[in-house]
Automatic annotation (TrEMBL):
It comes from the Bacteria. Pfam families: 3-dmu-9_3-mt (PF06983). This is VOC family protein. Residues 6-130 form the PhnB-like domain. It comes from Actinokineospora guangxiensis. InterPro entries: Glyas_Bleomycin-R_OHBP_Dase, PhnB-like.
Amino acid sequence: MPSRLNPYISFDGTAREAMEFYRSVFGGTLVVNTFGEYGVEDPEQGKRVMHAMLETDGGYTIMAADTMPGMPHNPGDSVSVSLSGDDTEELRGYWAKLAEGAQVATPLEKQVWGDEFGACTDRFGVSWMVNIAGAAAG
């Protein structure tokens, strides 16, 4: 298997909901394992997500987990997930879904460098950037 780079996102009890949302955005196969499946007996802690992985037909992989109670959780402090490419329809579709209920910092529109770009923080506190490549200068 070749090396790959993908985000691993921490949530504070909303990992399953967030990952199901991302599956609705990108499609694909979602596998979710809870702490309870691995021996945590406390019912509240046991239902939290120990590991979730979404693998999409487009080649994206997103992983996530819930933090356990008492662990620090500071969403969006230092990471943004970036989607880029030249498939305008696909990327605009992702943007439209991600931006629902999100805090939009930069609307998806043509920028000075010639690409369409938008930035938002989704309803789970995750920062997203979408860049649609413009026509190549010739």
